[in-house]
Amino acid sequence: MNISEAIQKLFPNAKPGSDKDFLVMDLADGEGQFIAEWNLPDPQPTETELQAAWKEYQLNPPPAPLSEFEKLQQLQELMQQAIDEIIFGGDL
After folding, report:
1. What DSSP designation does 16 have?
2. Residue 82 clears pLDDT 60, i.e. is over it
3. In the chain, what are the domain boundaries?
4. Tell me: domain 1-61, CATH 3.90.180.10, correct?
């Protein structure tokens, strides 16, 4: 299980990392990942809640982030729509 991804499934706006909302660590001692820091106002999720969230994450992973090219392509399309609106007044 990827605890960080499971937490993100439970708390989509939580920011992982040191000095953030939570920190997940693995000491490479065979024990696996664990929550080293929990700075959210919500209670820290139980192992059962994390397992359920991990299964949900695997069934419904978040969409892959857009590449720089895809971001530029979207921006170009939005700009073209705005230009068309200005030129044609929305009567396309």
Report:
1. B
2. yes
3. 1-61, 64-92
4. no
